[in-house]
Each structure stands twice: as structure tokens, then as C-alpha cells.
Amino acid sequence: MRDSSVKSNRSRATSTVHRTVLVPVHGENTMMRGTKLQMRHVVFVGPQGAGKGTQAALVAPRFNLIHLSTGDLLREVIASDLPIAAEIRAFVDRGDLVPDDVMARMLFAALDERADSSSAGALLDGFPRNPTQADALDAQIGERGESLELVVHISVPHEVLLCRLTGRLTCRACGRTFHREFSPPKTDGACDHCGGELYTRSDDTKEAVSRRLTIYFAQTEPLLERWRARGIVRDVNGNQDISLVTTSIIQVISHEFTQTTDN
Ligand SMILES: [Zn+2]
Questions:
Q1: Residue 231 reports pLDDT greater than 80
Q2: Is 176 a member of any domain?
């Protein structure tokens, strides 16, 4: 416990260095430096198949948010020379799960590594997934003196998710994916690109998909209640065309964050 608080104090020391905000001046490219900016963070919540990752990647740059996707990040941080990498490697090498508070510190270590003076905050995708992780996130953000500004909830009906997630077909030869309904191959059962055999990965079977969705609806979705109480949840209909989902998300984030002008 003591160790970890020492470490997070150290990371706080780096993060509270006054950030420089670039404030666009009307009608010209001149930027005014020197205003202090406090990072404000956004969390994307939604079940697998809601398009969270795709949307987060599209939207984050428009608001100078740093997109942090837990899945990718863990692999990247382990391979990096960030101070927290050794700590995480120790858990992974022992075959243990990385504790939630360590995951939360990892996210902010990666954020500080990637952020520059124009960064508005983090856009978290895939974290938190349960109450313990949500507590760990609150603790980190509180320690940094920052805020969780917005939770974007992308909702998609259960049966639509089942259909999206179980229809995926993967090519045994080249790994490309198709979808029975949304992007079917030209020839049944064969890859358009290499002619390889298409199959349903074990992750994409109805049983596997239902199991993951059940965990989401039992552990992750109830987190919305705590955030609704703070008035920071914005619901977005994820059951529409991808570009319309993007537009809706941009709309809700625009209320709290300024869009970059070059997008
Ligand atoms: Zn193929």
C-alpha cells in the first residue's frame, strides 16, 4: 500500500505541471499560451458489439482526447520502458490478473506519456468494467485533482448484439472477417480475398457471446447508476448507422469539450 501511494504521488508530480492550453484567437492562427488546463476525462460504456472502440478512435482526436483502450494498452505498456511496466510484468509473469488499482495507474501513466500541452484528457474505452475498477478510477482521478467529466453510454438492444456478434465469420487462411448478415462473402463459406475456408471462432459462438454479454449487463452496466447520480451520463443510441452514432457522440461531447478546428 505504502509503495503504491509513493509511486502515485510521484506520477502526480509530473501531471500537475501546469499545462499550456492553446486558445485560438479569432480569425487568425495565433495561439495564446499560458492558461492552466486541468485534464477532464471521458469514459465510453457499452457492451461488446456496440462499436465502442471504433467510435472512440474516431471521436477522440476531434476533442484532443487521448484514446486509451485497455486491451491494447496492457500489451503496449508491458513492452514499454515506463516505470509501471515492471510492476505489471510481475503479475502477468506469475499468471495473475493485474489488480484494478494497478490498471488504473497504468492508464494514467500511459496518458501522461502521450499527452501534450493541447490534450484535454483521456477517453477510456474498456475501463472501468466493474465497481472495484470504478472505485480505482475515482481514486486515481481524485488524487490527480482532475475530473470524470462525461460518461458516454452506447446502448444497443441485447438481441441486436447477439446478431452482430454471432454472425462473424473468420477466414482460416488469411484471418479476414466477414459477417453473415452485414458483410457476407460473395461465395458461401469461402473468403473473398484468398478463397480460404470461413469458420465461426470459438469467441463468436452464441454461448461465448451470451456469457460475455451477461457479465457486461451484470457488472458494467449497473455502474451507470453511480454516474447518473452525478449527472454525467449521456445516452447514445448505438443501434443505428455507424456514422449516425458518431454524429450523436460528437454532439454530446461538444457540450462539454471544444472541438479541434482542423477536423
Ligand atoms: Zn482469406
A1: yes
A2: yes
